[in-house]
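Private note to self, pasted from the team thread so I don't lose it. Backbone tokens:
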């Protein structure tokens, strides 16, 4: 699953963007440049939705710094409608530029345009004696089939598609329960992780607990 970093200090808008994209993408949220820089360093994204005017600086400056080492697609958000602002943003490396207010449906379409040339995942993963086919919902360890619940499948896919990266409990909960987390108890994730671990076996352990953070998939 593609990962999108949303950098927007308006919490309501940031949450709205996440909700609009959550079914297709894993969304990371930042509300300042400082938090965005730290988050992007820890978990590089496949696309950045970036507000130009942030409490601790300019989003364009942040993008310019990223462009020194990375070609990740960037969609700028701004309340400025002057033509020169749009031209400057594009010339400095933005892939697209949307002025506020905007339709979340339009934003979703523009995100799709930026990512449409990326090779789509086949949904099939082979790692050692494991074979996971998420499209057909067929899972096996060697010649033994694995029966996984829908929540276990979502957890497994999220971990595998972000293998080697530390995923927070809140990110996993949001992905597994598709944002409908109001009635999800914190302990529910621990239960799903333990069930999946037991089914996969522990030789070697595939799902590592990152204390104080969440979990990571270690099997390559």
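Design output:
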């Amino acid at each position: 699953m593609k990962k999108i970093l949303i950098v927007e200090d308006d919490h309501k808008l940031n949450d709205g963007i996440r909700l609009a994209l959550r079914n297709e993408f894993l969304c990371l949220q930042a509300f300042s440049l400082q938090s965005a820089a730290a988050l992007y360093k820890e978990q590089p994204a496949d696309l950045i939705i970036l507000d130009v005017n942030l409490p601790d600086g300019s989003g364009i400056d942040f993008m310019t710094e990223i462009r020194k080492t990375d070609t990740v697609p960037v969609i700028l958000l701004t309340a400025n409608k002057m033509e020169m602002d749009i031209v400057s943003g594009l010339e400095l490396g933005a892939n697209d530029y949307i002025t506020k207010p905007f339709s979340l449906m339009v934003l979703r379409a523009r995100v799709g345009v930026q990512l449409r040339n990326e090779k789509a995942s086949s949904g099939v993963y082979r790692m050692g004696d494991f074979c996971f086919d998420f499209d057909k919902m067929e899972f096996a360890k060697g010649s033994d089939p694995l029966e996984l619940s829908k929540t276990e499948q979502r957890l497994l896919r999220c971990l595998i598609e972000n293998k080697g990266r530390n995923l927070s409990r809140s990110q996993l909960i949001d992905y597994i329960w598709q944002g409908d987390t109001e009635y999800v108890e914190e302990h529910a994730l621990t239960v799903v992780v333990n069930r999946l671990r037991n089914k996969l076996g522990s030789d070697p352990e595939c799902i590592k607990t990152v204390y104080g953070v969440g979990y990571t998939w270690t099997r390559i």
